[in-house]
UniProtKB/TrEMBL annotation, chain A:
Protein name per the record: tRNA (adenine(58)-N(1))-methyltransferase catalytic subunit TRM61
PROSITE patterns in the cross-refs: SAM_TRM61 (PS51620)
Biased composition (Basic and acidic residues): 259-277
GO cellular component: nucleus; tRNA (m1A) methyltransferase complex
Single GO molecular function: tRNA (adenine(58)-N1)-methyltransferase activity
Function: Catalytic subunit of tRNA (adenine-N(1)-)-methyltransferase, which catalyzes the formation of N(1)-methyladenine at position 58 (m1A58) in initiator methionyl-tRNA.
UniProt cross-references to InterPro entries, sorted A to Z: SAM-dependent_MTases_sf, TRM61_C, tRNA_MeTrfase_Gcd14
UniProt superkingdom: Eukaryota
Cited Pfam families: GCD14
Domain tRNA (adenine(58)-N(1))-methyltransferase catalytic subunit TRM61 C-terminal: 65-310
Localization in the cell: Nucleus
Organism: Gigaspora margarita
Main location, first listed in the record: nucleus
SUPFAM superfamilies per UniProt: S-adenosyl-L-methionine-dependent methyltransferases
From TrEMBL, chain B:
Pfam family, any one: Gcd10p
Superkingdom of this protein's organism: Eukaryota
Keyword Cytoplasm attributed: no
Family indicated by similarity: Belongs to the TRM6/GCD10 family.
Bias kind Basic and acidic residues: ranges: 14-31
Any Gene Ontology biological process: tRNA methylation
Protein name: tRNA (adenine(58)-N(1))-methyltransferase non-catalytic subunit TRM6
Compartment(s): Nucleus
Length: 329, 418
């Protein structure tokens, strides 16, 4: 049985292994000694993989190629998860996790579950004593996510519920420390999210919206419901391609021309004399190398805007409160 | 909870489950940081926007300079999130925070066409305001008075009215806000104070390092931290006291100053072990400890002796754990050459584990990347740059700094296959 919550050294029957063929090509395999996995590099028998150390470079049975057997992590799962919906990527996942102040013991509300990819990251971070309540209105998606969580040893940490939260709310009160809303109309769920917060402590909420119009409505709704510190961020990750390039100089440019002229002259001489003179061997000198990097011309652009706000705890003695707004008016 | 939709929002079985989680969390040590506690660090945000770090001690007062003074007992035990206004020199009352006041779309026709820079529009002089303060007038009332005394306040647009009020508030308001130290707020404080001390590391980058390294409960991680302990702090928090954080530090003694501001529980603090670069090498032997008969030591000497012995044994224990190997990941934010760090520490990692190296200068990592490709011990070395932009109240801050992270899984090679 695989767990996303602890590492293993050796691969066992029933484990989930992430087969790494290339950066763009990874595939999840559940170890079953009766099965074989085929790709363009050949045949890989599960029985050959069982017992190997995670990280092993595995040659195919016919020796035509190889792949690496990696230990699953929520991040690798993001690469191989069947995309039932648009999923969150590492830049957003990381920033949200820190901003929502997640750590072992945190209790979180997520809506919707989608492909369950972010749920994996969340569960990893709040284990072993936290809990994730995740809501998905699409029944098939909720079922599929639930199945993934069970297979990945996360079902004790995650409660999945199929529910239309716009109409029915979350049905949770005074419980969670953080809320993550990846919904087309988060403003319709904010009142219910507010009730879900643990009422006597500070909490954080994040709305994940691709369009600026959604952000504006969400901000207005958060403000109306008494959330404070409303802030909006956008984060991206850009890869850098690393190359080794030779460094030629002007001297090299001149000698290149000289070599060409030399060739031409020799050819003319050969034609004139019609004699087969021995070719002089060309001495090629390798120029020094330089290690460089560049941003790919096509980088992944905007994903979504992250709108954060703070839930304020209800005071023991509400009478104390002086309304700043009234005072100023 | 069942997948089927039920009529009742939460059935009884769910209530049991929810209650039990509730309870287990209440017992957790992290709960301590949710209220303002005695003997803990707190950031105090002043009206000017400056931040003061205070270690609260009960039965004392904290001075906020020209903004006044408050008694620590008045905020200890209160939840974080609210602001307080100082009145009568050292008394405080709770202020309800609001995110923003909605500014009506301006249809007044006001604009800055007639605006001239004329200080005489403000009828209150500096001396008048000082007198009001002396008379004990509260901050909010002073601001109101200042606005009333501005002869052309009404001619301002709604936007510039709001801006004017905000500017006056930062000057005359006596409202302060105790802020809970979290990874974010601690980072924010140190980044604003002296970014070079934390190697210019931004919070988005730090967050990516924690995610990519799979830092979580029950992990055993190696951390090379020359960021005053910022990176170590993040890792310790994510492990939550379950697992081991082994910090490799510069100099003879570590300087993880930032760790203490998080008010970690003993359990979390105990998960940290440290070794200097010298102590990790087997051939660099440590001076053996001179064990003595404890019964023959005086009370004073015994205390000193026991502390020295404990320190010695802690180092021995950390060395044993390092040499045993099988670590779950390596995080680096260091002044030293990454290649040399990899050569030294990678042998202690298990297979298929992430290695994350941070550097503010891309050139350093480009060399490391090539080194890793050539060595054949690493899979998929990659350099990434992270980018963060914050939009706030209509103001746009474009915050683009160059940072690099490496994401690699260590591959184990077998002789018969390799």
């Amino acid at each position: 049985m695989t767990s996303f919550l602890s590492y293993k050294t050796y691969i066992e029957e029933g484990d989930l292994v992430i087969a790494y063929i290339s950066r763009e090509n990874m595939t999840p395999l559940i170890m079953d000694p009766k099965l074989t996995y085929n790709n363009k590099f050949g045949t890989f028998r599960h029985s050959d993989m069982i017992g190997k150390e995670y990280g092993t470079k595995m040659p195919s049975h016919n020796g035509r190629g190889f792949m690496y057997l990696l230990h699953p992590t929520p991040e690798l799962w993001t690469h191989v998860v069947p995309h039932r919906t648009q999923i969150l990527y590492i830049a957003d996942i990381s920033f949200i996790t820190t901003y929502l102040d997640l750590k072992p013991g945190s209790i979180i509300l997520e809506s919707g579950t989608g492909s369950g990819s972010f749920s994996h990251s969340l569960a990893r971070t709040i284990a072993p004593n936290g809990h994730l309540y995740t809501f998905e209105y699409h029944e098939e998606r909720a079922k599929a996510a639930k199945q993934d969580f069970e297979r990945h040893g996360l079902s004790d940490l995650i409660t999945v519920e199929c529910r239309d939260v716009y109409k029915e709310g979350f049905g949770i009160t005074d419980l969670v420390h953080a809320v993550f809303l990846d919904l087309p109309a988060p403003w319709d769920a904010i009142a219910s999210a507010k009730a879900a917060f643990k009422q006597k402590r500070i909490g954080k909420i994040c709305c994940f919206s691709p369009c600026i119009e959604q952000v504006q409505r969400a901000c207005a709704s958060l403000n109306e419901h008494g959330f404070v510190e409303i802030k909006m961020f956008e984060c991206l990750i850009r890869n850098q391609e690393v190359h080794t390039i030779p460094v030629y100089t002007v001297k090299d440019a001149v000698s290149k021309i000289k070599v060409q002229q030399d060739k031409k002259r020799k050819r003319n001489e050969e034609e004139a004399s019609d004699s087969k003179a021995a070719k002089s061997p060309r001495i090629k000198q390798d120029p020094p190398n330089l290690y460089v990097s560049k941003t790919p011309t096509e980088a992944k652009g905007h994903t979504s805007y992250l709108t954060f706000a703070t839930f304020l705890p209800v005071l023991d003695d509400e009478v104390e409160i002086i309304d700043k707004v009234n005072e100023l008016d | 909870m069942s997948l089927e939709q039920s009529d009742s929002p939460v059935d009884s079985q769910n209530f049991d489950k929810i209650d039990s989680h509730n309870e287990s969390f209440e017992q957790d040590e992290h709960t301590d940081t949710l209220r303002i506690m005695d003997n803990q660090y707190v950031f105090i945000v002043l009206p000017s926007g400056n931040i003061k770090v205070v270690k609260l001690q009960k039965d004392t007062t904290v001075s906020l300079g020209k903004f006044g003074t408050f008694h620590t007992n008045d905020i200890i035990g209160k939840p974080f999130g609210h602001s307080y206004e100082i009145y009568d020199r050292d008394k405080i009352k709770v202020i309800r925070n609001v995110a923003f006041y909605e500014v009506d779309l301006d249809d007044s026709g006001a604009n800055n066409q007639e605006t001239i820079d004329d200080p005489s529009k403000q009828k209150l002089s500096y001396q008048d305001i000082e007198q009001l303060k002396k008379d004990g007038m509260e901050g909010q009332d002073i601001i109101k008075k200042v606005i009333e005394s501005h002869s052309s306040f009404d001619k301002k647009t709604e936007y510039s009215k709001a801006k004017y009020i905000k500017r006056k508030e930062s000057k005359f308001s006596r409202v302060f806000t105790p802020v809970r130290p979290t990874l974010y707020s601690v980072w924010e404080y140190f980044f604003a104070k002296n970014p070079s001390k934390i190697r210019d590391m931004r919070i988005d980058t730090l967050s990516q390092m924690l995610t990519l390294s799979n830092a979580r409960a029950y992990a055993k991680l190696l951390v090379v931290d020359d960021t005053q302990g910022l990176l170590i702090t993040g890792v310790m928090e994510r492990l939550g006291g379950y697992g081991i954080v082994l910090g490799i530090h510069d100099g003879e003694y570590h300087n993880y100053d930032i760790v203490r501001y998080m008010n970690f529980s003993k359990k979390v603090n105990d998960s940290l072990m440290v070794l200097s670069w010298q102590q990790i090498f087997k051939e660099e032997c440590q001076a053996p400890f001179n064990y003595q008969d404890e019964s023959k030591l005086s009370q004073k000497d015994l205390k000193f002796y026991l502390r020295k012995k404990a320190n010695y044994e802690k180092v021995q224990e950390a060395r044993k754990i390092l040499w045993k190997g099988g670590f779950d990941g390596l995080l680096v934010a260091s002044q030293y050459q990454p290649e040399s760090i990899l050569d030294t520490l990678v042998p202690y990692l298990a297979g298929s584990r992430p290695i994350i190296i941070y550097h503010i200068n891309r050139e350093v990592l480009v060399n490391t990347c090539v080194h890793m490709r050539i060595s054949g011990k690493f899979l998929n070395p990659q350099i990434t740059e992270s980018w963060l932009r914050q939009y706030q109240h209509g103001h746009i801050e474009n915050d683009m700094v160059f940072v690099c992270i490496f994401k690699i899984s260590k591959a184990v090679m077998y002789a018969n296959f390799g």
